[in-house]
Write a structure and sequence with these properties.
The complex is a heterodimer of chains A (347) and B (238). Chain A contains 13 helices and four strands. In chain A, the strands form two sheets. Chain A has a two-stranded antiparallel ribbon with strand order 1-2. Chain A is globular. Chain A has 347 residues and is mostly helical. In chain A, 67% of the residues lie in helices and 2% in strands. Chain B has 238 residues and is an alpha/beta fold. Chain B has helices at residues 44-52, 74-79, 97-106, 111-124, 140-153, 170-186, 196-202, 220-225, 227-234; strands at residues 4-15, 18-29, 33-37, 59-64, 67-68, 82-85, 158-162, 188-192, 205-210, 213-219. In chain B, the strands form two sheets. A six-stranded mixed beta sheet of chain B has the order 6-7-8-3-9-10, with helices on both faces. In chain B, helix 3 packs parallel to helix 5 (140-153) and helix 5 (140-153) runs parallel beside helix 6 (170-186). Chain B is globular, with a radius of gyration of 18 Å. Classes of the chains: A mainly alpha (347), B alpha/beta (238). Chains A and B meet through helix 7 and helix 8 of A and helix 2, helix 3 and helix 4 of B.
Chain lengths: 347, 238
């Protein structure tokens, strides 16, 4: 739907993103910023699946790691990066579609969903750790067990494997990827599909009684989130230039969930900000040894759950409204159409 | 002869050792208005859930407009044009009233037409003043109306209402009577109810459930005057 609100939002997003991408390198090195962007994208993926799809996935790290490994393995075999990038999106999405179909057609919900996605991540973690032997080879790529896969072809200009995209240009490339993913998520949420997904989050039985195929729609949502997480994984592989089983670790999975809660569940920008903010904090804490990082992120989580359960994003939105003196708009956009007898709810 | 829109043959639902619905043969015609009554635990709601696909029956068959729909998932049944209001109001609290009704209309219409349909439904149900608020903030009676709006927006030819008058005030019930009459002009309507006054005001044919089976079926006055029905309601074993 191309209405006026979408145009304004698009312009606003582009302006804010351009400013952030231009200004931040003056404060933080682009190398660090790149990984914050990548984590932001990973946060966005769970923000979509959990915040709007209502699917609590404890295993978003599985799709992230799968994307990274897919990229690394394909890059070694193909010797260039374009097809591996596409595969790194497609493989996690396909895996999630199969896993999601089993979960959602099996009518698993809530805690069972969390347990199974968590276990899948653990299995991948274990498996990847156990692939040190020389028999674990895919094409020319050795899986390498605990040590992971180093030395694969990193991102290059399509068609020219010797023209590497790295350093500053990789930073801009990642930023554009995040922006595109964000706009895609925004467009999906504005579409009927997105609004129905939110309806399913609110009440599955009612959605089914309206005639919507709930398991199919949840599976698609789950796969879409995995595709974004896979892209983040591929970017991460390019940034780190090595992939290891640590990508599938429990702490990685837990971090993503904390990012979403702290940033603001049910918002688009919240998980992105939560991911970038907390990861930067982790980076700063890593430079000292007085306080252990997990103590701090645990404390932050507890404080947010107790005092700011809605997360940062709603607070920022309210502050913005105060600054611009705009009256709060209804959270729920009414599509264009005749107003008829509808109350003018903006008053 | 009017078309049969809903028919069950030997419909049975067993939960472990409990026979909730036992061998029910039921049929109704297009644009018929039918009330299901019976004491608590008579199996009305279970019967209902079997029809809507929320529960798979243990035995027996269900036909809608001649098509067998036994054990269909509920979204398939709903997609045929069957609108259901559940016993406990089932609305989407995180969305606005407008969005709730828009989603119901969107299932059968493209976005713009769905918007028109939702506006129209909101006008018909006089929900205009609350269209932008969340159903979670509304009074119980209004929540029921929102759910009826969702049923209405799908333009169903078979409407299943499970205890629509439960917890409603006198004025709300009056409005509800009008809404049900309106449904009955275009659709076959099944109403499960306890409220006898409401039933008297809308019913023509009544089916009485007792212990999972159909005890009696007939015109409302005859049924309510029947000694067996009276004893069932007064709690004696007939």
């Amino acid at each position: 739907m191309r209405d006026a609100g979408w145009g304004r939002e698009l312009t606003g997003t582009l302006v804010v993103a351009a400013c952030a991408v231009g200004v931040l390198p003056m404060l933080v090195s682009t190398y660090t910023l790149t990984v914050l962007i990548i984590y932001g994208m990973l946060g966005l993926s769970l923000g979509l699946v959990w915040g709007f799809g209502g699917i609590l996935c404890f295993g978003q790290a599985a799709f992230f790691g799968l994307g990274a490994y897919t990229y690394a393995i394909a890059a070694i075999n193909f010797g260039e990066s374009t097809v591996p990038m596409l595969l790194a999106v497609a493989v996690p999405a396909g895996f999630a579609a199969v896993l999601g179909a089993m979960l959602f057609y099996g009518r698993l919900t809530d805690v069972y969903l969390g347990v199974i996605t968590l276990v899948v991540t653990l299995i991948l973690h274990r498996f990847m750790n156990a692939t040190a032997g020389s028999e674990y080879v895919i094409g020319n790529a050795r899986l390498g067990g605990f040590n992971g896969i180093p030395g694969f072809q990193t991102l290059n200009v399509p068609g020219d494997p010797s023209a590497y995209v790295w350093g500053e240009s990789f930073y801009y490339f990642s930023a554009v990827c995040l922006l595109l993913a964000y706009l895609l998520v925004s467009a999906v949420l504005r579409s009927s599909f997105g609004r129905i997904a939110v309806g399913i989050r609110e009440n599955e039985t009612r959605a089914a009684l309206m005639g919507y195929d709930v398991p199919a729609r949840k599976t698609v949502m789950f796969a879409a989130g995995a595709a974004i997480a896979g892209l983040a994984g591929a970017l991460f592989a390019n940034w780190a230039e090595i992939v290891t089983p640590r990508l599938f670790s429990l702490s990685q999975s837990a971090d993503i969930i904390i990012w979403c809660i702290v940033g603001g569940l049910g918002t688009r920008i919240g998980p992105v900000l939560g991911a970038a903010g907390l990861s930067y904090l982790k980076f700063l804490l890593g430079q000292q040894d007085l306080l252990h990082n997990s103590v701090v992120s645990g404390a932050i989580l507890v404080l947010f759950v107790l005092f700011l359960p809605g997360g940062i994003a709603p607070v920022l939105a309210n502050a913005w409204r105060l600054v611009t003196r705009r009256r709060p708009r209804s959270r729920y956009r009414r599509p264009r159409g005749p107003r008829s007898s509808l109350a003018s709810g903006d008053a | 002869m009017p078309e049969t829109v809903l028919e069950t043959q030997g419909l049975t639902m067993q939960f472990g050792g409990v026979l909730a619905v036992a061998q029910v043969d039921f049929r109704m015609d297009a644009r018929e208005l039918r009330c299901l009554i019976g004491p608590n635990g008579a199996g009305k709601s279970t019967f209902f859930k079997c029809i809507t696909g929320l529960l798979p029956p243990t035995e027996g068959q269900i036909f809608m407009r001649g098509q067998e729909t036994t054990r269909w998932p509920s979204h398939h049944v709903a997609s045929l044009g069957v609108g259901t209001k559940t016993q406990v109001p089932s609305v989407m609290d995180g969305l606005s009233v407008f969005e709730n009704i828009w989603l119901a209309a969107r299932r059968f219409l493209p976005p713009r037409a769905a918007t028109r349909k939702a506006d129209e439904t909101i006008t018909r149900l006089a929900l205009g003043p609350v269209a932008r608020s969340s159903p979670g903030r509304l009074a119980h009676g209004e929540r029921q109306h929102v759910e009826l709006g969702m049923v209405m927006a799908g333009d169903p030819w078979l409407v299943l209402l499970d205890e629509p008058a439960a917890g409603m005030t006198g004025g709300d019930v009056e409005r509800l009577t009008e809404i049900v009459e309106e449904f009955a002009r275009t659709a076959a309507v099944v109403v499960v109810e306890h409220d006898m006054q409401f039933i008297r005001s809308i019913a023509r044919t009544v089916t009485v459930f007792h212990r999972g089976a159909v005890l009696l079926e007939g015109h409302v006055d005859a049924v309510l005057a029947d000694p067996a029905v009276r004893s069932v309601y007064l709690g004696q074993a007939a």
